[in-house]
Amino acid sequence: MPNFICETCGTQFTESQTPPEHCPICEDARQYIGWQGQQWTTLDALQEVHHNVIKTLEPGLTGIGTHPSFAIGQRALLVQTARGNILWDCVSLLDPPTQAAVHSLGGVAAIAISHPHFYSSMAEWSRAFDAPVYLHADDREWVMRPFTDIRFWDGESLPLLEGITLIRCGGHFPGSSVLHWPEGAAGRGALLSGDTLQVVSDRRYVSFMYSYPNLIPLPAKTIHEIANSLEPYAYDRIYGGWWDRNVEHNAKTAVTCSAERYIEALG
Hints:
There is one protein chain. Helices cover 21% and strands 26% of the residues. By secondary structure, it is α+β, with helices and mostly antiparallel strands. The chain has one domain: Ribonuclease Z/Hydroxyacylglutathione hydrolase-like (Metallo-beta-lactamase, Chain A). A 7-stranded mixed beta sheet has the order 3-4-5-6-7-8-9. It has a 6-stranded mixed beta sheet with strand order 10-11-12-13-18-19, covered by helices on one side. Strand 3 and strand 4 form a beta hairpin. It is globular, with a radius of gyration of 17 Å.
């Protein structure tokens, strides 16, 4: 039986003979049901009309994004380390050329995902690379295709490989997280943020929202908590969840200024 994929959010569901009646992720206030109603596809169908673009973003960091754009349109990031690679966030499409390209870069030792909107086809990626998937336990209810290699983590941070750390910021979802990569940006440090921190069109700033498509803000107290969760870490660059949504320099200052600006706007 197929594992149907929601065309609006890109989430893959547990196998069924017919498409699910609902997508709980899209019915939630942080997302939306597509204007043409709930639509479904499969991995086989995606492979017929889409392919993944793979780009080196800096030494040790590779982006993986689907073309033409599918669902939310995010791209994943592969962080290469001497002890194995970490796939940050995920995309719905996985095909043989992508598997071959990722294997040529050293494969995947672990997968970590910022929040439920990017869970996508994580079970397929986990199986293809024999890699565990790290999700914050606060977002456990949003897993639409449970599988044995999910490792739910609790608390405010989780060390992974080579000094890389997952940091729970909260906000967008209770378990919304970022990945701190200390070797990124030529050793000045980088955050991989998904849209826990959304790099906005003026790439000197980020934003923090409960819902981005529906423009629902977060309260000032939550913004303080997000900024405070990142204060102990050194970083000069932020890689957001989409191609070119990056803060190239002075990223820690950008987060501080963005939080202050947001709180001031709330009054």
